[in-house]
Amino acid sequence: MNKRRLHPVAMVTRVGRELKNVLLPLLVVVVAGSGGDFSWRDLVVPLLVLAYTIVAGILSWVRFTYGWDDQTLQVEKGVFVRKKRTIPFERIQGISITEGIWQRLAGVVKVHIETAGNVPGEAEVTLAAVSREEVRRLQRDIEQAKEQAEESNPWNDQEKRLLSPPLFTLSVKEVWLAAVTSGGAFGVVAAVWAFLSQLGDLIPYEALFRNVQATWNGHGRWYIGIIGLVALLAAYGVAIVQNMIRFASFAVRKQEDTIVITRGWLERKTVSVPIGRVQGVMIHESWLRRLFGYATVSLIHAGGALDGGPPGDVVLCPLVKKERVSSIVHACLPEYDLDVTFHPLPERAKIRYMLRPLYWLMVPVLLAAYIERPWGAGLLLVLPLAAWIGVRRYRAAGWALSSRQLTLRSGWFRQTTTYMLKRRLQSIEVSATWWQKRKRLATISAAVMPLGTSARVVDVDGQDAAAVYRWMQVERKDET
After folding, report:
1. Start and end of every YdbS-like PH domain (predicted)?
2. Are 245 and 99 in contact (CB under 8 A)?
3. DSSP annotation of 421
4. Looking at 330, 362, 393, which one is the last position of a domain?
5. Residue 362 and residue 387 in contact, taking contact as beta carbons nearer than 8 Å
6. How far apart are CA 323 and CA 316, in angstroms?
7. 100 and 30: one domain?
8. By CB atoms within 10 Å of each CB, which of 174, 228, 283, 465 scores lowest?
9. Using alpha carbons only, what angle is made at residue 58 by residues 1 and 105, rounded to the nearest 5 degrees?
10. Is residue 354 within 8 Å of 328, Cβ to Cβ?
Protein backbone atom coordinates (compact mmCIF):
# COMPACT_ATOMS: atom_id res chain seq x y z
CA MET A 1 0.00 0.00 0.00
CA ASN A 2 1.47 3.32 -1.10
CA LYS A 3 1.01 6.11 1.41
CA ARG A 4 -0.02 9.41 -0.13
CA ARG A 5 -0.21 12.98 1.07
CA LEU A 6 -2.90 15.46 0.28
CA HIS A 7 -2.31 18.18 -2.29
CA PRO A 8 -0.56 21.25 -0.76
CA VAL A 9 -3.73 23.28 -1.29
CA ALA A 10 -5.13 21.34 1.70
CA MET A 11 -2.45 22.91 3.87
CA VAL A 12 -3.23 26.38 2.51
CA THR A 13 -6.97 26.08 3.12
CA ARG A 14 -6.47 24.65 6.61
CA VAL A 15 -4.06 27.40 7.65
CA GLY A 16 -6.33 30.04 6.12
CA ARG A 17 -9.36 28.68 7.97
CA GLU A 18 -7.53 28.63 11.30
CA LEU A 19 -6.17 32.15 10.79
CA LYS A 20 -9.66 33.40 10.01
CA ASN A 21 -10.88 31.95 13.31
CA VAL A 22 -8.14 33.52 15.44
CA LEU A 23 -7.54 36.90 13.77
CA LEU A 24 -10.66 38.62 15.09
CA PRO A 25 -10.23 37.47 18.73
CA LEU A 26 -6.57 38.49 18.57
CA LEU A 27 -7.53 41.91 17.25
CA VAL A 28 -9.97 42.36 20.12
CA VAL A 29 -7.31 41.25 22.63
CA VAL A 30 -4.75 43.71 21.22
CA VAL A 31 -7.15 46.67 21.23
CA ALA A 32 -8.58 45.88 24.67
CA GLY A 33 -5.19 45.11 26.19
CA SER A 34 -3.49 48.25 24.95
CA GLY A 35 -6.08 50.48 26.64
CA GLY A 36 -5.38 53.24 24.13
CA ASP A 37 -1.62 53.18 24.87
CA PHE A 38 -0.33 50.96 22.06
CA SER A 39 3.06 49.27 22.41
CA TRP A 40 4.90 46.75 20.25
CA ARG A 41 5.00 44.45 23.26
CA ASP A 42 1.26 44.02 22.86
CA LEU A 43 1.93 42.16 19.60
CA VAL A 44 4.21 39.49 21.07
CA VAL A 45 1.49 37.08 22.18
CA PRO A 46 -0.68 37.53 19.03
CA LEU A 47 2.36 36.93 16.80
CA LEU A 48 3.23 33.78 18.73
CA VAL A 49 -0.34 32.55 18.33
CA LEU A 50 -0.24 33.25 14.59
CA ALA A 51 3.10 31.47 14.24
CA TYR A 52 1.80 28.47 16.18
CA THR A 53 -1.32 28.34 14.00
CA ILE A 54 0.72 28.34 10.80
CA VAL A 55 3.24 25.75 12.02
CA ALA A 56 0.48 23.49 13.36
CA GLY A 57 -1.32 23.65 10.02
CA ILE A 58 1.83 22.71 8.11
CA LEU A 59 2.68 19.84 10.46
CA SER A 60 -0.90 18.53 10.29
CA TRP A 61 -0.61 18.38 6.51
CA VAL A 62 2.79 16.66 6.66
CA ARG A 63 1.58 14.06 9.17
CA PHE A 64 -1.66 13.27 7.32
CA THR A 65 -1.30 10.28 5.01
CA TYR A 66 -3.77 7.96 3.34
CA GLY A 67 -3.76 4.93 1.10
CA TRP A 68 -5.79 1.91 0.10
CA ASP A 69 -5.49 -1.62 -1.16
CA ASP A 70 -8.06 -3.97 -2.68
CA GLN A 71 -10.23 -4.13 0.43
CA THR A 72 -9.53 -1.27 2.86
CA LEU A 73 -8.86 2.45 3.13
CA GLN A 74 -6.25 3.52 5.69
CA VAL A 75 -5.72 7.00 7.11
CA GLU A 76 -3.04 8.19 9.54
CA LYS A 77 -3.08 11.63 11.12
CA GLY A 78 -1.99 13.54 14.20
CA VAL A 79 1.02 15.72 14.99
CA PHE A 80 1.86 14.53 18.50
CA VAL A 81 -0.57 11.61 18.86
CA ARG A 82 -0.80 9.38 15.80
CA LYS A 83 -4.25 8.04 14.97
CA LYS A 84 -4.61 5.20 12.51
CA ARG A 85 -7.94 4.25 11.00
CA THR A 86 -8.71 1.33 8.73
CA ILE A 87 -12.06 1.25 6.93
CA PRO A 88 -13.21 -1.81 4.93
CA PHE A 89 -14.70 -0.86 1.59
CA GLU A 90 -17.86 -2.81 2.45
CA ARG A 91 -18.63 -0.32 5.25
CA ILE A 92 -18.42 2.74 3.00
CA GLN A 93 -21.99 3.90 2.41
CA GLY A 94 -21.65 7.30 0.83
CA ILE A 95 -19.13 9.57 -0.86
CA SER A 96 -19.66 13.28 -1.45
CA ILE A 97 -17.28 15.36 -3.55
CA THR A 98 -16.84 19.11 -3.13
CA GLU A 99 -14.98 21.49 -5.43
CA GLY A 100 -14.37 24.80 -3.71
CA ILE A 101 -12.66 27.76 -5.32
CA TRP A 102 -9.19 26.76 -4.13
CA GLN A 103 -9.71 23.13 -5.10
CA ARG A 104 -10.87 24.09 -8.59
CA LEU A 105 -7.85 26.33 -9.10
CA ALA A 106 -5.55 23.47 -8.09
CA GLY A 107 -7.47 20.84 -10.08
CA VAL A 108 -8.37 18.76 -7.00
CA VAL A 109 -11.52 17.91 -5.05
CA LYS A 110 -12.53 17.48 -1.41
CA VAL A 111 -13.88 14.01 -0.57
CA HIS A 112 -16.17 13.13 2.36
CA ILE A 113 -16.43 9.41 3.04
CA GLU A 114 -19.26 8.16 5.21
CA THR A 115 -19.57 4.68 6.64
CA ALA A 116 -22.25 2.61 8.31
CA GLY A 117 -22.43 3.43 11.99
CA ASN A 118 -20.56 6.72 12.04
CA VAL A 119 -21.91 9.69 13.97
CA PRO A 120 -24.57 11.55 11.95
CA GLY A 121 -23.35 14.97 10.86
CA GLU A 122 -19.70 13.92 10.81
CA ALA A 123 -17.85 12.31 7.94
CA GLU A 124 -15.86 9.20 8.82
CA VAL A 125 -12.94 10.45 6.71
CA THR A 126 -12.39 13.75 4.92
CA LEU A 127 -9.69 14.04 2.26
CA ALA A 128 -9.33 17.79 1.80
CA ALA A 129 -7.47 17.84 -1.54
CA VAL A 130 -7.26 14.79 -3.81
CA SER A 131 -6.84 14.64 -7.56
CA ARG A 132 -9.87 13.66 -9.62
CA GLU A 133 -8.03 10.66 -11.04
CA GLU A 134 -7.35 9.31 -7.54
CA VAL A 135 -11.00 9.76 -6.60
CA ARG A 136 -12.08 7.83 -9.69
CA ARG A 137 -9.65 5.02 -8.86
CA LEU A 138 -10.87 4.92 -5.26
CA GLN A 139 -14.51 4.78 -6.33
CA ARG A 140 -13.74 2.05 -8.85
CA ASP A 141 -11.90 -0.03 -6.24
CA ILE A 142 -14.77 0.42 -3.76
CA GLU A 143 -17.31 -0.71 -6.36
CA GLN A 144 -15.24 -3.74 -7.29
CA ALA A 145 -14.81 -4.73 -3.64
CA LYS A 146 -18.56 -4.45 -3.02
CA GLU A 147 -19.34 -6.47 -6.14
CA GLN A 148 -17.03 -9.24 -4.99
CA ALA A 149 -18.53 -9.21 -1.50
CA GLU A 150 -22.07 -9.39 -2.85
CA GLU A 151 -21.16 -11.92 -5.56
CA SER A 152 -22.84 -9.87 -8.23
CA ASN A 153 -23.92 -11.38 -11.51
CA PRO A 154 -21.07 -11.70 -14.00
CA TRP A 155 -23.14 -10.46 -16.95
CA ASN A 156 -23.52 -6.93 -15.56
CA ASP A 157 -21.77 -4.91 -18.22
CA GLN A 158 -19.86 -1.69 -17.81
CA GLU A 159 -22.59 0.41 -19.36
CA LYS A 160 -24.93 -0.42 -16.50
CA ARG A 161 -22.62 1.38 -14.11
CA LEU A 162 -22.63 4.56 -16.14
CA LEU A 163 -24.67 7.48 -14.91
CA SER A 164 -28.15 7.71 -16.39
CA PRO A 165 -29.40 10.92 -18.00
CA PRO A 166 -30.56 13.47 -15.43
CA LEU A 167 -33.85 12.58 -13.79
CA PHE A 168 -34.24 16.15 -12.57
CA THR A 169 -32.55 19.48 -13.28
CA LEU A 170 -33.20 23.09 -12.34
CA SER A 171 -33.55 25.70 -15.07
CA VAL A 172 -32.19 29.21 -14.56
CA LYS A 173 -35.71 30.47 -13.84
CA GLU A 174 -36.28 27.72 -11.27
CA VAL A 175 -32.91 28.42 -9.62
CA TRP A 176 -33.92 32.05 -9.21
CA LEU A 177 -37.39 31.12 -7.93
CA ALA A 178 -35.92 28.58 -5.50
CA ALA A 179 -33.52 31.22 -4.17
CA VAL A 180 -36.25 33.85 -3.78
CA THR A 181 -38.66 31.52 -1.98
CA SER A 182 -36.07 29.78 0.22
CA GLY A 183 -35.84 32.57 2.76
CA GLY A 184 -32.69 32.44 4.84
CA ALA A 185 -32.70 36.13 5.75
CA PHE A 186 -32.88 35.39 9.46
CA GLY A 187 -29.90 33.05 9.09
CA VAL A 188 -27.89 35.93 7.61
CA VAL A 189 -29.03 38.24 10.42
CA ALA A 190 -28.00 35.63 13.00
CA ALA A 191 -24.57 35.27 11.38
CA VAL A 192 -24.05 39.06 11.35
CA TRP A 193 -25.19 39.29 14.97
CA ALA A 194 -22.79 36.52 15.98
CA PHE A 195 -19.98 38.40 14.24
CA LEU A 196 -20.83 41.73 15.87
CA SER A 197 -21.14 40.10 19.28
CA GLN A 198 -17.40 39.40 19.15
CA LEU A 199 -16.69 43.13 18.82
CA GLY A 200 -18.07 44.11 22.20
CA ASP A 201 -14.84 45.90 23.14
CA LEU A 202 -14.77 47.87 19.89
CA ILE A 203 -18.43 48.87 19.53
CA PRO A 204 -20.13 50.87 22.33
CA TYR A 205 -23.29 48.78 22.49
CA GLU A 206 -24.55 50.42 25.69
CA ALA A 207 -24.43 53.88 24.13
CA LEU A 208 -26.13 52.60 20.99
CA PHE A 209 -28.87 50.98 23.06
CA ARG A 210 -29.45 54.22 24.97
CA ASN A 211 -29.71 56.15 21.70
CA VAL A 212 -32.17 53.63 20.27
CA GLN A 213 -34.23 53.75 23.46
CA ALA A 214 -34.26 57.55 23.41
CA THR A 215 -35.31 57.57 19.76
CA TRP A 216 -38.09 55.08 20.50
CA ASN A 217 -39.37 57.08 23.46
CA GLY A 218 -39.12 60.26 21.38
CA HIS A 219 -41.63 58.94 18.84
CA GLY A 220 -38.95 57.84 16.39
CA ARG A 221 -40.52 54.44 15.96
CA TRP A 222 -41.00 54.94 12.23
CA TYR A 223 -37.28 55.61 11.72
CA ILE A 224 -36.31 52.52 13.68
CA GLY A 225 -38.88 50.46 11.79
CA ILE A 226 -37.58 51.67 8.41
CA ILE A 227 -33.98 50.92 9.39
CA GLY A 228 -34.97 47.45 10.56
CA LEU A 229 -36.89 46.82 7.32
CA VAL A 230 -33.95 47.94 5.18
CA ALA A 231 -31.58 45.69 7.16
CA LEU A 232 -33.96 42.74 6.75
CA LEU A 233 -34.28 43.36 2.98
CA ALA A 234 -30.49 43.55 2.67
CA ALA A 235 -30.14 40.25 4.53
CA TYR A 236 -32.82 38.76 2.27
CA GLY A 237 -30.84 39.87 -0.79
CA VAL A 238 -27.69 38.24 0.55
CA ALA A 239 -29.64 35.03 1.21
CA ILE A 240 -30.97 35.04 -2.38
CA VAL A 241 -27.44 35.29 -3.79
CA GLN A 242 -26.23 32.49 -1.49
CA ASN A 243 -29.08 30.20 -2.53
CA MET A 244 -28.58 30.91 -6.24
CA ILE A 245 -24.91 29.95 -5.93
CA ARG A 246 -25.90 26.84 -3.99
CA PHE A 247 -28.62 25.59 -6.37
CA ALA A 248 -26.88 26.42 -9.66
CA SER A 249 -26.31 23.45 -12.02
CA PHE A 250 -28.49 21.21 -9.85
CA ALA A 251 -28.99 17.72 -11.30
CA VAL A 252 -30.16 14.33 -10.02
CA ARG A 253 -29.07 11.05 -11.61
CA LYS A 254 -29.37 7.41 -10.70
CA GLN A 255 -26.48 4.96 -10.88
CA GLU A 256 -27.66 1.43 -10.16
CA ASP A 257 -28.47 1.50 -6.43
CA THR A 258 -27.12 5.02 -5.80
CA ILE A 259 -28.69 8.46 -6.22
CA VAL A 260 -26.10 11.01 -7.38
CA ILE A 261 -26.83 14.70 -6.75
CA THR A 262 -24.63 17.49 -8.14
CA ARG A 263 -25.01 21.19 -7.45
CA GLY A 264 -23.18 24.46 -6.95
CA TRP A 265 -21.48 27.18 -8.94
CA LEU A 266 -18.49 28.54 -7.02
CA GLU A 267 -18.32 25.33 -5.01
CA ARG A 268 -19.24 22.25 -7.02
CA LYS A 269 -20.53 19.41 -4.90
CA THR A 270 -21.41 15.81 -5.74
CA VAL A 271 -23.34 13.72 -3.21
CA SER A 272 -23.85 9.96 -3.52
CA VAL A 273 -26.76 8.54 -1.53
CA PRO A 274 -27.09 4.72 -1.51
CA ILE A 275 -30.73 3.75 -1.94
CA GLY A 276 -30.35 1.18 0.83
CA ARG A 277 -29.72 3.97 3.35
CA VAL A 278 -32.80 6.02 2.45
CA GLN A 279 -35.17 5.88 5.42
CA GLY A 280 -37.99 8.04 4.13
CA VAL A 281 -39.15 10.79 1.79
CA MET A 282 -40.30 14.25 2.87
CA ILE A 283 -42.29 16.76 0.81
CA HIS A 284 -42.09 20.36 2.05
CA GLU A 285 -44.56 23.00 0.86
CA SER A 286 -44.17 26.52 2.19
CA TRP A 287 -47.18 28.79 1.82
CA LEU A 288 -45.30 30.95 -0.69
CA ARG A 289 -44.29 28.05 -2.92
CA ARG A 290 -47.81 26.61 -2.80
CA LEU A 291 -49.02 29.78 -4.51
CA PHE A 292 -46.88 28.87 -7.54
CA GLY A 293 -47.57 25.12 -7.35
CA TYR A 294 -44.07 24.14 -6.21
CA ALA A 295 -42.69 21.92 -3.48
CA THR A 296 -39.34 20.69 -2.11
CA VAL A 297 -38.40 17.01 -1.92
CA SER A 298 -35.81 15.72 0.55
CA LEU A 299 -34.60 12.28 1.56
CA ILE A 300 -34.15 10.98 5.09
CA HIS A 301 -31.02 8.85 5.09
CA ALA A 302 -29.09 6.96 7.74
CA GLY A 303 -26.04 9.15 7.82
CA GLY A 304 -24.65 12.62 8.29
CA ALA A 305 -25.15 15.96 6.57
CA LEU A 306 -23.94 15.01 3.10
CA ASP A 307 -25.01 18.25 1.41
CA GLY A 308 -24.39 20.69 4.24
CA GLY A 309 -27.93 20.56 5.59
CA PRO A 310 -29.22 18.97 8.79
CA PRO A 311 -27.84 15.51 9.62
CA GLY A 312 -29.83 12.76 7.94
CA ASP A 313 -31.41 15.11 5.39
CA VAL A 314 -30.50 15.41 1.69
CA VAL A 315 -32.37 17.69 -0.72
CA LEU A 316 -33.47 15.71 -3.78
CA CYS A 317 -35.40 18.51 -5.52
CA PRO A 318 -35.03 22.07 -4.18
CA LEU A 319 -37.97 23.25 -6.29
CA VAL A 320 -40.27 21.09 -8.39
CA LYS A 321 -43.83 21.27 -9.67
CA LYS A 322 -46.07 19.21 -7.42
CA GLU A 323 -47.41 17.17 -10.33
CA ARG A 324 -43.86 15.97 -11.09
CA VAL A 325 -42.98 14.90 -7.55
CA SER A 326 -44.50 11.42 -7.75
CA SER A 327 -42.78 10.48 -11.03
CA ILE A 328 -39.36 11.72 -9.90
CA VAL A 329 -39.51 9.93 -6.55
CA HIS A 330 -40.77 6.74 -8.23
CA ALA A 331 -37.87 6.85 -10.71
CA CYS A 332 -35.39 7.09 -7.82
CA LEU A 333 -37.22 5.01 -5.20
CA PRO A 334 -39.82 2.68 -6.77
CA GLU A 335 -40.86 1.29 -3.36
CA TYR A 336 -42.50 4.53 -2.26
CA ASP A 337 -46.09 5.32 -3.18
CA LEU A 338 -46.82 9.05 -3.12
CA ASP A 339 -50.32 8.83 -4.60
CA VAL A 340 -52.12 8.08 -1.35
CA THR A 341 -55.51 9.12 0.02
CA PHE A 342 -55.26 10.97 3.33
CA HIS A 343 -57.61 10.50 6.25
CA PRO A 344 -58.62 13.91 7.67
CA LEU A 345 -58.76 14.73 11.35
CA PRO A 346 -62.13 14.46 13.12
CA GLU A 347 -64.35 17.54 13.33
CA ARG A 348 -64.01 17.69 17.12
CA ALA A 349 -60.28 18.43 16.72
CA LYS A 350 -60.92 21.73 14.88
CA ILE A 351 -61.56 23.80 18.01
CA ARG A 352 -58.27 22.59 19.52
CA TYR A 353 -56.36 23.73 16.44
CA MET A 354 -58.10 27.11 16.59
CA LEU A 355 -57.33 27.66 20.27
CA ARG A 356 -53.78 26.28 20.32
CA PRO A 357 -52.05 29.40 18.85
CA LEU A 358 -54.16 31.65 21.08
CA TYR A 359 -52.74 30.10 24.25
CA TRP A 360 -49.38 31.81 23.81
CA LEU A 361 -50.53 34.84 21.77
CA MET A 362 -53.38 36.12 23.94
CA VAL A 363 -51.41 37.63 26.83
CA PRO A 364 -48.57 39.36 24.86
CA VAL A 365 -51.00 40.76 22.25
CA LEU A 366 -53.33 42.17 24.91
CA LEU A 367 -50.40 43.70 26.81
CA ALA A 368 -48.94 45.26 23.64
CA ALA A 369 -52.36 46.61 22.63
CA TYR A 370 -52.80 48.19 26.07
CA ILE A 371 -49.30 49.71 26.21
CA GLU A 372 -49.45 51.16 22.69
CA ARG A 373 -53.06 52.35 22.87
CA PRO A 374 -54.91 53.64 20.95
CA TRP A 375 -53.04 52.48 17.83
CA GLY A 376 -52.09 49.22 19.51
CA ALA A 377 -55.71 48.12 19.24
CA GLY A 378 -54.89 47.05 15.70
CA LEU A 379 -52.81 44.24 17.17
CA LEU A 380 -56.03 42.57 18.27
CA LEU A 381 -56.52 41.52 14.64
CA VAL A 382 -53.68 39.05 15.21
CA LEU A 383 -55.96 36.88 17.35
CA PRO A 384 -58.60 36.01 14.71
CA LEU A 385 -55.79 35.63 12.17
CA ALA A 386 -54.09 33.09 14.44
CA ALA A 387 -57.37 31.20 14.84
CA TRP A 388 -57.80 31.15 11.05
CA ILE A 389 -54.28 29.75 10.63
CA GLY A 390 -55.18 27.09 13.18
CA VAL A 391 -58.14 26.07 11.01
CA ARG A 392 -55.85 25.86 7.97
CA ARG A 393 -53.47 23.62 9.92
CA TYR A 394 -56.40 21.43 10.94
CA ARG A 395 -57.48 21.00 7.32
CA ALA A 396 -53.94 20.29 6.13
CA ALA A 397 -53.16 17.60 8.71
CA GLY A 398 -53.84 13.96 7.89
CA TRP A 399 -52.49 10.44 7.69
CA ALA A 400 -52.49 7.51 5.27
CA LEU A 401 -51.77 3.84 5.78
CA SER A 402 -51.08 0.93 3.45
CA SER A 403 -49.76 -2.57 3.99
CA ARG A 404 -46.14 -1.40 3.94
CA GLN A 405 -46.12 2.41 4.23
CA LEU A 406 -47.17 5.08 6.73
CA THR A 407 -47.67 8.68 5.63
CA LEU A 408 -48.07 11.65 7.99
CA ARG A 409 -48.84 15.25 7.02
CA SER A 410 -48.89 18.35 9.22
CA GLY A 411 -48.28 22.10 9.16
CA TRP A 412 -49.63 24.91 7.02
CA PHE A 413 -47.05 27.70 6.75
CA ARG A 414 -44.60 24.90 6.01
CA GLN A 415 -46.62 21.80 5.26
CA THR A 416 -44.56 18.63 5.60
CA THR A 417 -45.59 15.21 4.31
CA THR A 418 -43.43 12.28 5.43
CA TYR A 419 -43.53 8.91 3.67
CA MET A 420 -42.05 6.02 5.69
CA LEU A 421 -41.82 2.34 4.79
CA LYS A 422 -42.87 -0.05 7.52
CA ARG A 423 -39.54 -1.91 7.48
CA ARG A 424 -37.68 1.40 7.98
CA LEU A 425 -39.66 2.54 11.01
CA GLN A 426 -37.80 2.48 14.29
CA SER A 427 -40.82 3.17 16.48
CA ILE A 428 -44.39 4.42 16.56
CA GLU A 429 -45.71 6.23 19.63
CA VAL A 430 -49.36 6.96 20.36
CA SER A 431 -49.91 9.40 23.21
CA ALA A 432 -52.85 11.35 24.61
CA THR A 433 -53.08 14.15 27.14
CA TRP A 434 -55.97 14.50 29.57
CA TRP A 435 -57.64 17.03 27.26
CA GLN A 436 -57.20 14.75 24.26
CA LYS A 437 -58.71 11.79 26.11
CA ARG A 438 -61.82 13.85 26.81
CA LYS A 439 -62.22 14.38 23.05
CA ARG A 440 -61.18 10.80 22.17
CA LEU A 441 -58.10 12.12 20.33
CA ALA A 442 -54.44 11.13 20.26
CA THR A 443 -51.06 12.08 18.81
CA ILE A 444 -49.19 9.78 16.42
CA SER A 445 -45.37 10.03 16.30
CA ALA A 446 -43.28 7.86 13.98
CA ALA A 447 -39.48 7.75 14.03
CA VAL A 448 -36.94 6.45 11.54
CA MET A 449 -33.18 6.07 11.86
CA PRO A 450 -31.49 5.03 15.12
CA LEU A 451 -31.21 8.64 16.31
CA GLY A 452 -34.86 9.32 15.52
CA THR A 453 -35.90 11.64 12.74
CA SER A 454 -39.61 11.73 13.49
CA ALA A 455 -42.92 12.95 12.09
CA ARG A 456 -46.14 13.42 13.99
CA VAL A 457 -49.78 14.39 13.65
CA VAL A 458 -51.68 15.84 16.60
CA ASP A 459 -55.33 15.15 17.42
CA VAL A 460 -55.96 12.06 15.33
CA ASP A 461 -59.08 10.07 16.14
CA GLY A 462 -58.26 7.73 19.01
CA GLN A 463 -59.48 4.61 17.19
CA ASP A 464 -57.46 5.52 14.10
CA ALA A 465 -54.34 6.01 16.22
CA ALA A 466 -54.88 2.60 17.81
CA ALA A 467 -55.24 1.05 14.35
CA VAL A 468 -51.91 2.55 13.28
CA TYR A 469 -50.28 1.20 16.44
CA ARG A 470 -51.67 -2.29 15.80
CA TRP A 471 -50.43 -2.10 12.20
CA MET A 472 -46.91 -1.64 13.53
CA GLN A 473 -47.23 -4.71 15.76
CA VAL A 474 -48.04 -7.03 12.86
CA GLU A 475 -45.12 -9.12 11.64
CA ARG A 476 -43.33 -7.60 8.68
CA LYS A 477 -43.17 -10.84 6.75
CA ASP A 478 -45.59 -9.47 4.16
CA GLU A 479 -42.97 -6.89 3.07
CA THR A 480 -40.80 -8.00 0.22
Report:
1. 61-140, 253-328, 394-471
2. no
3. E
4. 393
5. no
6. 15
7. yes
8. 228
9. 80
10. no
Evaluate if residue 343 carries a pLDDT over 70: yes
- Claim to verify: residue 157 and residue 216 sit in the same structural domain: no
What torsion, rounded to 10 degrees, do the Cα atoms 395, 401, 406, 408 define?
Answer: 0
Residues 68 and 19 in one domain: yes
Range of the domain at 365: 347-393
- Neighbour-count burial for 424-452, b at 16+ CB within 10 Å, e otherwise: bbeebebebeeebeebebbbbbbbbbeee
DSSP assignment of 193-232: HHHHHTTTTTS-HHHHHHHHHHHHHTT-HHHHHHHHHHHH
pTM for the full predicted model: 0.75
pLDDT of 223 over the 70 cut: no
Given a cut of 80, whether residue 193 has pLDDT beyond it is no
How far from the centroid of its chain's Cα atoms is residue 204's Cα?
A: 36
**CA gap 446, 30 in Å, rounded:** 53
Please tell me the predicted confidence (pLDDT) of residue 475: 55
Residue 339 lies in a domain: no
Radius of gyration of the chain (CA): 27
Listed in sequence order, the residues at least 6 apart from 37 whose beta carbon sits closer than 8 Å to its beta carbon are: none
Q: In 248-321, where does DSSP find H-type helix? A: 287-291
